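Milestone M4 deliverable, item 7.
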Amino acid sequence: MDIAYIPSPSTGVIHLGPIPLRGYAFCIIIGVFVAVWLGNKRWVARGGKPGTVADIAVWAVPFGLVGGRLYHVITDYQLYFGEGRNWVDAFKIWEGGLGIWGAIALGAVGAWIGCRLRGIPLPAWADALAPGIALAQACGRWGNWFNQELYGRATDLPWAVEISAGPNRDAGTYHPTFLYESLWCIGVAVLVIWADRRFTLGHGRAFALYVAAYCVGRGWIEYMRVDEAHHILGLRLNVWTSIVVFVLAVVYFVLSAKLRPGREEVVEPDRSGDGDGNGDKAPAAADAESATDAEAAAGPKDTGPKDADPKDADSKDAEPDAPEVDLSKAGPAEAPEAKKL
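Output delivered:
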């Protein structure tokens, strides 16, 4: 009797002439675009400028990819540096193997650099991007489907995933843990969006909620996986990582709520030269206006009566009805005027 199952692609790469198009890479790229799109909408809604999320993502994404790969290679070093292994495979990121913990950690370093250059707070940017990151993970997990990896124990459930025979795997139907995690990440994104609107989260708390909620799901999903992994006290390494990161996220959420309640009023200060290009002109106009006001308050400049010029007094063309005025002999009536000048 045949049972229902989710078929796996026969290959994870399609060649367009000499150019390989890999399903794993497509899933990662789609995830990045989704995260930037949603993050930009949320950033603008918080008072930020369009394009800022993408500008910072230029820093965060490369750092995140490197960090994710480093975490995977370090925690599964036996796959690349063991006996009969080729260390060059550690650079073949298209074959799968990105650790979300390393991606978030090193990606945060890249985001911090980008935020510093833009003069905006990293926690505010992380809050705006949090649900988008969860959706990016949901998209990225389907890359594991193309590579036939990250599956759980054998099962005959109708939603089991079919795995073909290959290196380090046996043919059969297994729990599609990549699907479980993808659906969980979608739920995390919805949770963060709802909680952010309901409780007006700020100062990094929306991001902390995303981290904590993801760790809860990753813990039980990781427990179902059967691929090779390091164990500590009977638990997989990533289960322990989920526990530790969950505790840190909850502690940050609680302390942040006490120390910095509410949400940032300004997430992206206006900078000179931004917007319509009048940022540099406004200060100059203000200075010019101030100078004009100062001149008006000081009164007109005293260039002296023209008839007092000695050259005009001696000139043959001087008009006879313009007598020379001697200020030293001015009467009391002229004294206040002279004082005013």
